[in-house]
Amino acid sequence: MAEDLRERLRRVRRNMAAAEREFGRAAGGVKLLAVSKTRSAAEVLSLARLGQLDFGENYLQEAEDKIRQLQDHGLTWHFIGPIQSNKTRRIARCFHWVHSLDRARIAARLDAARPPELPPLNVCIQVNVDAAPGKSGVSPQEAAALAEQLSALPRLRLRGLMTLPAPAGDFAAQRQPFMTLRRLQERLAERGCPLDTLSMGTTGDMRAAIAEGATMVRIGVALFGPRDGQPPHA
Ligand SMILES: *Cc1c(COP(=O)(O)O)cnc(C)c1O
């Protein structure tokens, strides 16, 4: 297992570096977030021993168990799944980042629940760039208003924007939603809201995301292998 992980981690890092070069990005400018949903604490620890320290989780209960087991390893935990309002207190206590914020009411609850002894919780606004009905995320038009509401919450630190577009066939089509997110970041900066993070790109579209300015890619399958019986981005 550790050997497979080592080889896959090497390959992902190599592909990231190649995309950085290809698209004129600074070397090392893109951070790798290992998406460890459905993976065991032992697998996470194996990756951690290879120097991978940022992990993304979608399901709170499962994540809490791993976070508890691995608490002495200096890992940074990112919550990337849909947020139910009755889970905000626990999320605010055990995560360093939340990428999937899309409602002011959830933001207020996370802010109120962030323990005073911890630094502010880093957050990204999830944007539904396809405007697909029923998907998580605010519309691009709603993002500025939510960003403004977040600025009033002292226990949250707004870092950036996140998106998870529907899978697209070719590279040019994959770039479109990521370009939309980058342009939204630029518009927010012009309005006095500079953000340092664009969380975009998964196993299937990482290169397109890096081409469009991703600063964090969220990679599961390419690191850990296929997820048995799981929908791709549940
Ligand atoms: C599962 C998931 C990923 C990782 O997707 P892979 O195809 O496994 O690379 C990234 N982001 C979110 C929000 C996810 O749910």
Topology, element by element:
Layout: H1 2-22, E1 31-35, H2 41-49, E2 54-57, H3 60-69, E3 76-79, H4 88-94, E4 97-101, H5 104-113, E5 121-126, H6 143-150, E6 156-162, H7 171-190, E7 197-199, H8 206-211, E8 216-219, H9 221-224
Parallel strand pairs: 1-2, 1-8, 2-3, 3-4, 4-5, 5-6, 6-7
Helix pairs in contact: 4-5
The protein binds pyridoxal-5'-phosphate.
Pyridoxal-5'-phosphate is lined by residues 35, 37, 58, 80, 164, 202-204, 218-222, 232-233.
Characterization of the model:
It is a single chain. This protein is of the alpha/beta class and about 230 residues long. The protein is about 40% helix and about 15% strand. The protein has nine helices and eight strands. It has helices at about 1-20, 40-50, 60-70, 90-95, 105-115, 145-150, 170-190, 205-210, 220-225; strands at about 30-35, 55, 75-80, 95-100, 120-125, 155-160, 195-200, 215-220. An eight-stranded parallel β-sheet has the order 7-6-5-4-3-2-1-8. α4 packs across α5 (about 105-115). The longest helix has 21 residues, at about 1-20. The radius of gyration is 17 Å and the shape is globular. The protein starts with a helix and ends in a 10-residue tail after the last helix. The mean pLDDT is about 95. Bound molecules: pyridoxal-5'-phosphate. Pyridoxal-5'-phosphate (PLP) binds near residues 203, 204 and 232.
